[in-house]
Amino acid sequence: MVHSLLGRAAWVFGGLAAAATLAFAALVDRAPAPPQAVPAVREVPADDLFAQHCALCHEAGAMTASLRAKPDREGTRRETVDFLHGHGEASDEEDVRIVEFLLGTQGPQTP
C-alpha cells in the first residue's frame, strides 16, 4: 500500500516538474538580447586622476620632484607604472596617465 502511494506521488511530482520545465521553456524569449549601448567614457584629466587615486596619501609636488630627479625618464616611467599596477585602485590606463602627469611638462611644478 505504501509502495504504491509513493510510486503515484513520484509520478505526480515528476509530471509537475516536467510540465513546469516545458512551461518555462515556452515562456522564455530565445531571441538574443540587443547589444547594450556603452556610454562614452568621459575623459578625466590626469590631475583629477591623481587627486582621486593618490592625493589622499601623496603630495603631487613631492612625487613630481622625486620622479623628475631621476636621470632615466623612460626607466622611471616603466618602474613607476609597474609599481602602480598593484598599488591603489586605479586601472592600468589610469596609472599610465598619472605617471605621465607626474613626469610630463603639464605636471605640477616643484615648490
Give a written overview of the molecule.
With 111 residues, the protein is mainly alpha-helical. It folds into two domains: 1-28; 45-111, no CATH class. Helix content is 61%, strand content 0%. It has helices spanning 2-27, 46-53, 60-68, 73-85, 92-103. Helix 2 (46-53) crosses helix 5 (92-103) and helix 4 (73-85) packs antiparallel against helix 5. 11% of the residues are buried.
Summarize, please.
By secondary structure, the protein is mostly helical. It has 5 helices and no strands.
- What is the count of β-strands? 0
Range of helix content: 55-70%
Sheet/helix structural class: mainly alpha
Share of residues in strands: under 5%
Number of helices: 5
Flag low-confidence runs.
Answer: 106-111
- Gyration radius from CA atoms, angstroms: 30 Å
Mass-distribution shape: rod-shaped
Largest sheet: none
Number of domains: 2
Order of helices and strands: HHHHH
Mean pLDDT level: 83
For the termini, the CA-CA separation is 94 Å
Structure characteristics:
2 domains; disordered C terminus; mainly alpha
How is the topology of this model organized?
Layout: H1 2-27, H2 46-53, H3 60-68, H4 73-85, H5 92-103
Helix pairs in contact: 2-5, 4-5
